[in-house]
Every structure is written in structure tokens, then in C-alpha cells.
UniProtKB/TrEMBL annotation:
Keywords: Chemotaxis, Cytoplasm, Hydrolase, Phosphoprotein
Domain CheB-type methylesterase: 164-359
Annotated catalysed reactions: [protein]-L-glutamate 5-O-methyl ester + H2O = L-glutamyl-[protein] + methanol + H(+); L-glutaminyl-[protein] + H2O = L-glutamyl-[protein] + NH4(+)
Name the record gives this protein: Protein-glutamate methylesterase/protein-glutamine glutaminase
Domain comment (free text): Contains a C-terminal catalytic domain, and an N-terminal region which modulates catalytic activity.
Lineage, opening ranks: Bacteria, Bacillati, Bacillota, Bacilli, Bacillales
Subcellular location: Cytoplasm
UniProt function note: Involved in chemotaxis. Part of a chemotaxis signal transduction system that modulates chemotaxis in response to various stimuli. Catalyzes the demethylation of specific methylglutamate residues introduced into the chemoreceptors (methyl-accepting chemotaxis proteins or MCP) by CheR. Also mediates the irreversible deamidation of specific glutamine residues to glutamic acid.
Entries under PROSITE patterns matching the protein: CHEB (PS50122), RESPONSE_REGULATORY (PS50110)
HAMAP family assigned to the protein according to its UniProt record, in alphabetical order: CheB_chemtxs (MF_00099)
Domain Response regulatory positions: 5-122
GO molecular function, one term: phosphorelay response regulator activity
UniProt organism field: Streptohalobacillus salinus
CDD domains in the cross-refs: CheB_Rec (cd16432), REC_CheB-like (cd17541)
Chief place where the protein resides: cytoplasm
Length: 361
């Protein structure tokens, strides 16, 4: 029985046909209509009331970003953006996530991707994920950081290890579906004098994590950057795992250092939260705070088990079900019985700071 109704929106007739064919291959998905631009999409939503919309960004008459704003205002429902792999495409993708899109699919070779079939599994899985998204959380406005930013110090990459000497704590964060909005709620509310580094895995393909890091850096008091292989961790800086690579932190005599490698997927992901958290469990020089936020699946739960096994005083925070866009990853974390605090999204940054204060940092 087909029970997920999808509207496919793209200005290319070829792409509309290919994406529709891919989705129709799944027994639970029914493509009820297609649209050739944003205005056409709005008309089709009124007429067919789809459960999920796939929405191209670059279109004539009305582009995807403009259409998304109208959808979120007048017909709120899960929207998945289709984006090019260019920097502009990545920036617009991040903008769409802030506006309420639940996920995105990168086109492998431009606006008309003849090889879109390579994305078949991803397209189907993301539509299935979108169908269970809680729209009441998507529609909530992002809580803005009211603090006025001051210029950040420039990180000295030649001797960055000096800045890690005063802290004994490292913060790890893992998230997936709904993560970019969730990260904005958390990272932008961490204080500029945060006495610890932050390492982050957001399930995201190559080419998009740098735009995410740059966007968060503009909005945050702490520095945010895409992690680079070999660099040392600095207090008051958040490092986002680059898409398409596994991300670990390793001990060195100068302090914790970033290790990035192209490897197999774990839990279907690269980067994977489990890979990061398991590496944190091996650090001799750091106490740990682990945070699991919104996302589909169970990535991160095995890492939590390892952190708690090897460092019993690890603090684990999970996002409360009430604020998750998708409750999968936090639910899996809580099922380990190792979570110390279940916290609603707007309060996670405060919980992190309170845990640091409790440790005397």
C-alpha cells in the first residue's frame, strides 16, 4: 500500500521523471504529482496535499528558496531540497535548512544530473525519513543569540597546542536529520571564553560542511571551522567533521589532534558519530562531555558505551524527544541507560556550560 504522497519539483522534465521513477520503486511511496517551478509547486500542494515535497533550488518563475518560504508559511510540511555541489549551492542549501527544509540531496553532476540514479538509495531513505519528521519543531523559529559579537582572535596554526593547556574537558556533539538548525541553537549560545574545544559530527556529504561551519562561525561567539587533518584542538573553537571522511581525535604529546581519513561508511555514514566518540574514549588527557541530538538511526550509541566504559565520569547529554525533529539517535542513546541528562534543545548549551562549571573549568 502506498502511504507516503510525494510532490517532485524540478524545472527539468528529465529530472522530474528520473526522481519520480526512483521514488515509485519503493512500495510505500506514491508520487502524486510533479511541478516545474516554485509557483507550480504551490498550486500542486493546494491541489494534492502531499506528505513530502522534493524541491529543486534553481528554477525559473519562482526559485526553490522563495517557494520554501511560502510552503513553510502557508502549507508547512517536510521539504527535501535538491542542490548543486557548488559553493553557492551549498550556501543556499544551508539557508534552506534554516528556513525549515528537513534535509537535502546533492545533485551529483549539476542541475541536470544524468547519473541521478546513483543517488537512488539516498533519495528513497531521505523521503522515508522526512515522512516521520515532527513539523511542530521545524516551524519553531530558531532562538537567536542576543549577544553582540566581538572580533575573534586569529588562531595561530603554527603553535595552536598552547591554547589547550588550561582545559581538561573535550565536548563531542553528534547529530543528523534536523541537525543544522539544532546546531545553530546550541553552538551560537556557547560563550566566547568556553574553556574547552568542541568536536562535531553532522551527517552531511562532502562540499556542504564547510558552508555549515562558515555559517555557524558568523553567528557564534566561539570560532567554528571545518576540521583539518593534523591540526591541534583549541579552546573556544568548534570543529565540524568534513563530509565524506571519518573524523577522529588522537592524543599527541602536544595535545589532542585531528585525524581525518577516507574510509568505509559506519552506520551508513561518513563521518559517523560512533567513529568520533570511540576515538574520544581513547584520549588519556581529556574528560568528556558527549551530546546526541536529533537524527534518524542509532549512530553515536556505541560510541557512548565506549566513552562510559573507558571514562566512567563521561557526561552524556541527549536531546529530549519533545524538541527533536527526529527522535531516533537520542532514543538509541537513552536506550543504553548511560545518558546523564535529557535536555530540550534550547537548554543544551546551558547544560554544557553547567557541566563545565561543575568540573571546575
Amino acid at each position: 500500500m502506498n502511504d507516503i504522497k510525494v510532490l517532485v519539483v524540478d524545472d527539468s522534465a528529465f529530472m522530474r521523471k528520473m526522481i519520480s521513477n526512483i521514488l515509485e520503486n519503493h512500495i510505500k511511496i506514491n508520487v502524486i504529482a510533479t511541478a516545474r517551478h516554485g509557483q507550480d509547486a504551490l498550486d500542486k500542494i493546494r491541489e494534492f496535499n502531499p506528505d513530502v515535497v522534493t524541491l529543486d533550488i534553481e528554477m525559473p518563475v519562482m526559485d526553490g528558496i522563495t517557494a520554501l518560504k511560502h510552503i513553510m508559511k502557508d502549507f508547512p510540511r517536510p521539504v527535501i531540497m535538491l542542490s548543486s555541489l557548488t559553493k553557492e549551492g551549498a550556501d543556499k542549501t544551508l539557508e534552506s535548512m534554516e528556513l525549515g527544509a528537513v534535509n537535502f540531496i546533492p545533485k551529483p553532476s549539476g542541475s541536470i544530473s544524468l547519473n541521478i540514479h546513483e543517488k537512488e538509495d539516498e533519495i528513497i531513505s531521505k523521503v522515508l525519513e522526512a515522512s516521520v519528521v515532527k513539523m511542530d519543531q521545524i516551524k519553531k523559529p530558531i532562538v537567536k543569540n542576543p549577544v553582540v559579537r566581538i572580533p575573534k582572535p586569529i588562531i595561530n596554526k603554527e603553535y595552536p597546542h598552547v591554547s589547550t593547556q588550561s582545559s581538561n574537558v573535550l565536548i563531542g556533539i553528534g547529530t543528523s536529520t534536523g541537525g543544522p538548525r539544532a546546531l545553530q541553537q546550541v553552538v551560537t549560545h556557547l560563550p566566547k571564553n568556553l574553556p574547552a574545544p568542541v568536536v562535531i559530527v553532522q551527517h552531511m556529504p562532502a562540499g556542504f560542511t564547510k558552508s555549515l561551519a562558515n555559517r555557524l562561525d558568523q553567528l557564534s561567539e566561539i570560532s567554528v571551522k571545518e576540521a583539518e587533518d593534523g591540526e591541534y584542538l583549541v579552546n573556544g573553537t568548534a570543529y565540524i567533521a568534513p563530509g565524506g571522511f571519518q573524523f577522529r581525535i588522537v592524543d599527541t604529546y602536544k595535545g589532542p589532534r585531528v585525524n581525518i581519513n577516507k574510509e568505509d561508511n559506519r552506520n551508513g555514514h561518513q563521518p559517523a558519530v560512533d567513529v568520533l566518540f570511540e576515538s574520544l574514549a581513547e584520549l588519556k588527557s581529556k574528560q568528556l562531555i558527549g551530546v546526541i541530538m536529533t537524527g534518524m538511526g542509532a549512530d553515536g550509541s556505541n560510541g557512548i558505551i565506549e566513552m562510559k566504559k573507558k571514562k566512567a565520569n563521561t557526561i552524556v547529554i541527549s536531546e529530549a524527544k519533545e524538541t527533536c525533529v527526529v527522535y531516533g539517535m537520542p532514543q538509541a542513546a537513552e536506550k543504553t541507560k548511560l545518558v546523564d541528562a535529557v535536555v530540550e534543545l534550547p537548554n543544551i548549551a546551558t547544560e554544557i556550560v553547567n557541566q563545565l562549571k561543575a568540573r571546575g573549568e
